[in-house]
Request: fold
Amino acid sequence: MEWQKLLSTKRFGQEDLDNQHHHDRTEFQRDYDRLIFSAPFRRLQNKTQVFPLPGSIFVHNRLTHSIEVASVGRSLGNDVSKRLLELRPSLGSTNLKEIGAIVSAACLAHDLGNPPFGHSGESAISTFFSEGEGQKYRDSMSEAEWSDIIHFDGNANTFRLLTHQFSGRRKGGFVMTYSTLASVIKYPYPSTKSGKKNKFGFFQSEIDGYLRIAEELGIKRIGEDNDLVFARHPLVYLVEAADDICYEIMDIEDSHKLKITSTDKTRELLLGFFDEEKQEHIKDVLKGVSDLNEQVVYLRSCVIGHLEHECIKTFIENEESILNGTFKGSLLDNTEGRTCDAYKTCCEYSVRKIYKSKDVVDVELAGYKIIYTLIELFTTAVMSPEKKYSQMLLNRVSEQYEIHSTDAYGKIMAVLDYISGMTDVYALDLFRKINGTSIPLI
Reply:
């Protein structure tokens, strides 16, 4: 793959207008601004990141997480751009200097397709069709379409949200640049190639759009024969690194605030990234900070700065294999020695002690039940619209969602569009109203 082709300002849905607009902002800065002011982005403030939405103690939601990921992503992109231009000044005439803007925009968008209650919501959607009453719709669609439904993934849903022309909306969805869209596709293959991970990059309904982007940018196909398996766009690795850094390190900080993780354990986990000399320097600084939460804030900032440096180093050292599509794993997986070991230790601790804590599991259980029930009710409604109760339910659905599609796949995807776009609070409120436990004006 070549940087000259990979960094394109062509806009999805406005291909005929490419380079006909002139703005003070670059095209990639316009992507960022367009996302910031969008309704789906604002709704992230009421979507769970890991812990229950804030009570008396503020922890991260999807919105604050996405903003922080975009900040880290911009730093990674700017530094990678600087290093690449130093190594190859001939690329100065390309959009290489805009990598920071592209990565930060992709970071803002990376969680837009996640349903309410995160992975619990994804699981509820998938299992309703793979294990529940939804199995009866299997014969009404193709094998590939059915695979999309039973492996529903927020990553693929993000690409759909960004590119799909919903009813009454303009062609091209968000009308983003090809490069920003490609930088969001963490798993560049369809659901039929997702394997046991249930992770993939685009639904059947968006395959043509992705192929158009891949061809324009020269993204390498790495699947055998006619398999729709592609190499990642190189900037995906920077988006992924920013996300990995933020969710892992910030989750530990949040767990400390919530007293799930002790101060001593938090210090141990975060100091583990540094050699003895650096640890002593950090400890000297902490002697002047009496507030325990502020101590953790300083430690967290040191770790994020360190991980940014290591990821940039790994990207530059492996640029050739990244462009060839042969690079394996994430940037963090390929860091060396102490950094890699400390990150794995944090991940293992989070899985054992944070993600299985009572508060987190309780939200997952409730979220699963809420989303499963809504999927069941609204899927039944779109598949049997002649029934009176179905008509009452469908009156709740915005006209932008294509619930009157002529085929089963289209109808069910419209339901998934509607429910995945909800906030946790909205989904809970609707669930209560449907079940009669919350009645307006009573």
